Description:
The protein is built from three helices and 29 strands. Strand 11 (about 185-190) and strand 12 (about 190-195) form a beta hairpin. The longest helix has 30 residues, at about 1-30. It is mainly beta. It has a domain at about 55-65 and about 210-393.
Amino acid sequence: MASVGNAAAAVKRLLLLLLVACRHKHAAKDDAAPKRDAARAIDAPSAWPELASITKVEPVRQIALPVRPGVPRFDVGGPVVLGDVAVVGSSQFGFLAVDIHDGHIAWTKPAGEHLAPPVVVGGSVVLLGECLNAQPVADTMLGCVRVVTATGADQGYLAVHGKGVEPFAGEPGEQHTWVIGEHALRWRRGDAAVDVDLLSGVAKLAPAQAPPVVVTYRGKTYAITQDADGLLHGAGATTWQTTRAYSQLIGAVLLPEQGPMIRAANAGAYAGQPEINLFDIDATGSMHGQVAFPVPGIGLIGHAIDAVGNTALAVRLDRSLERDFIAGYAANMLLMWVWPLPHQPRPDPVGLAVANDAVVVFHDGDTLTILPELSAPPTAPGAAKPPSENTTP
């Protein structure tokens, strides 16, 4: 019996050693992971009680981008989606395109230390950055523009320059880019902006206001803008103005067999608790409209909308400035899900794009996260899927 007992004890010791070794092996694998993954693992559900009643999703995939830590992170921008790739920019790696379906880096382009957010114009991606190899021009040079295909083939590279654009050249503020024509874009930096002709590279001073959201319905065109006080203004076939202010004009909602709506977000409070509301307002100026189920938060730090109205919001939850999350709404205003970003201070902007089968998030300057699609169930309005190259207007 003693020999049996000794044998059993030996087996137990062997099993214990194997278990400890296995644990050490797994721990070594975890230690090798990037620190940002460790930060995500620390976030327990109890860290986000305000989101407890809302469906949460896990990323489809996360891609660590090849940053150069020794290079200052002056500018970050994107993403925009064209075909199967999401394009982002950073002073630490230039511009790069990532295949959103398998995570591999499809191509890269140099940009220098300063760059603007990439933008899709027609079937190409337009990249604005420092001039690395361009002929000198007689007037003020603002940078260089590169036009590339979804596969990374260069279609053009020329200097962006103009006369009388010095106020823009010396403006250091936050940057935005918008499409304003078949071969033109608006580039805003702080309180100054220029319109850039992509065929010649010529830039002219322009209003710093974002271009209008334009929709066409039954042969009539409506253009909606937002003024400095937050009021929405409709022009074109009808003229109208809202009586209340909104925090952000998001874009147009174009559902099949329904009139066009304009989507806006507003930061407010209910019962003393801060929240973000989405509103759909009839683009034609009628009193028809609807309100979505709100999410908690003190403000927006990013947003995107696709060609039918599926919407992604980056929401700042509270004044700790460390808890931000992504909220996904279908075009019919159904709140589909939320995803908490890593719990940490976030000095860099959060970029969003809504593709036909995913939501793409560029965050913390070094990570691209792919989240599930936003389309409503097939039996609900808003189930139509737009082409993936349609992103934030």
